[in-house]
Amino acid sequence: MHRTVVIHRTPGSLxxxxxxxxxxxxxxxxxxxxxxxxxxxxxxxxxxxxAGVAPASAQKSKALPATTINGSGATFPQGFIDQCxxxxxxxxxxxxxxxxxxxGGSGKGRTEFADQVxxxxxxxxxxxxxxxxxxxxxxxxxxxxxxxxxxxxxxLPSLKKPLRLAPLNVAKLFQGDIxxxxxxxxxxxxxxxxxxxxxxxxxxxxxxxxxxxxxxxxLSSAAGSVWKLGAxxxxxxxxxxxxxxxNSGVGxxxxxxxxxxGYVDYSDAKxxxxxxAEVQNAAGxxxxxxxxxxxxxxxxxxxxxxxxxxxxxxxxxxxxPISAPTFVLxxxxxxxxxxxxxxxxxxxxxxxxxxxxxxxxxxxxxPKAWATQTRERLKAIS
Length: 382
Prior knowledge:
Radius of gyration: 20 Å
CATH class of the largest domain: Alpha Beta
Order of helices and strands: EHHEEHEHEEEEHHEHEHEHEEEHEEHEH
Helix content: 25-40%
CATH superfamily of the largest domain: Periplasmic binding protein-like II
Number of helices: 12
Structural class: alpha/beta
CATH topology of the largest domain: D-Maltodextrin-Binding Protein, domain 2
Shape: elongated
Oligomer: single chain
Number of strands: 17
Distance between the termini: 30 Å
CATH architecture of the largest domain: 3-Layer(aba) Sandwich
């Protein structure tokens, strides 16, 4: 049984001044960080959440029969998936879309989808070639959904302005070569800044993670041979690194530990109130994570015919360099017609009407041409 949690807001109750981007939105679409956290908590408890926010599209779809479709996987797009699940109920009230909070990680999403434990999955990275033969449901589609920064978040209360980090120093921080925050290498990136003599504590993922894979792929590209831990959904971190489950788990470690540094998706980093660094991009500019900087990372990037794309270490001068891809996994054919129709409607909603809601929960929408291409590919689902 679902309960509805209605969160009332008045203009005077906003906990902070709305940003310029938020002011540009209709008032009924503005969401405060308080609502973002309350919504996530309610979704995790299996509750329906409303705040006077209508679905992103007023158009009515043909009502589908009562069907439940289960998913699992990436925590990087958790906020977007949870947001879309809530408003999809108003478009298809008979369809229940399940997704745990946290999702379990990209590795879990790929494995459970391949084993047909779930009807759809979410992953920030594609299957390894060796794993393609293990996908029991046959042909499947990668469905791109959004992009967003992976932040380099840190806990250094004495610093009032964002820390600047070159990719070589990001690599050395996370592989344990830099052990104090006042290291001369960090100082060189931050002239005139008084850095604390605080021990560096590395916060990393404890689960198989697409965020880890994209972060380590970025370091392999941007730091080259300086980065020695390789790339993958799991890597061998320094022995004293602290592991957290999901992006929110890593964020919690950073929040609680002075001197900690972790890689956390932008949505969770903002929701947790973390500080994050300006990272030097391929053009030599130090860029703070933001949705416009993630969108810039997509400029000039091609969407492949299979739905994959890679904005990491973008050459765009305005790009945040650790802007990551993320995908939903769906089968081309399902043995149950109702499930096929429900999965198709859900995937179409993610790349269609719900794209307008992406920035409300701190994600950058797909380029319109990509969304159009993807909707065409989804016609193959049966």
